[in-house]
Write a structure and sequence with these properties.
Blueprint (H helix, E strand, L loop, with lengths): L18 E3 L3 H6 L4 E6 L13 H9 L3 H12 L6 E5 L2 E9 L16 H17 L5 E3 L11 H11 L4 E4 L1
Parallel strand pairs: 1-6, 2-4, 5-6
Antiparallel strand pairs: 3-4
Length: 171
């Protein structure tokens, strides 16, 4: 763990436990630590993902290429859009689907509530991707609990079941 970023606490039992920190997740990114950005599966008429709220919106404002990049992934994979790893210089973002595709109106997917089933699928994918590419420490927010309208008590068990000590939950 990066010195000075957090005081870590155990969130689950076992040998490999996810850690907990308070603060601004963008501080972690500025230190070169990959961060998770909750996103929706959808696109507009130009094929761009609508990154309209929360960390997704902040990411799109910081990195204007993201909506097109993610939109291409979403239009290709549709409801099966996976966790996507995006890098630029010293920034590494893991775009993590939490809101499902609105099949009739994909441009409105960003306004949907988050899906626990999609969060579980994305969490499993995230764990495999981080291990496969040896990304080291990864910081993530409590996915789906802000604009996704889920409760911490619903999401935390999913994260605990799949993520080990190389993940820090930043609130």
């Amino acid at each position: 763990r990066e010195a000075g970023l957090c005081r870590c606490h155990k969130l689950c039992s076992g040998d490999e436990v996810m850690k907990f920190a308070r603060g601004d997740i963008w501080d972690w990114s500025e230190r070169g630590i990959p961060i998770v950005i909750p996103v929706n599966i959808g696109w507009n008429a130009k094929g761009h993902n609508i990154m309209g709220r929360g960390l997704a919106r902040q990411a799109a404002q910081r990195y204007p290429v993201l909506p097109r990049f993610l939109g291409l992934k979403c239009t290709a994979a549709r409801e099966m859009t996976p966790v996507v790893w995006w890098q630029q210089e010293h920034t590494s973002l893991l775009l993590f689907p939490v809101k499902p595709l609105n099949f009739e109106r994909p441009w409105l997917s960003w306004q949907s509530d988050a899906s626990l089933a999609l969060i579980e699928r994305s969490t499993e994918q995230l764990s495999r991707l981080v291990a496969k590419h040896s990304l080291g420490m990864v910081a993530l927010p409590l996915v789906g609990c802000g604009n996704g309208k889920l409760q911490r008590s619903e999401v935390l068990p999913i994260l605990e079941a799949h993520l080990g000590d190389d993940f820090t939950l930043v609130e």
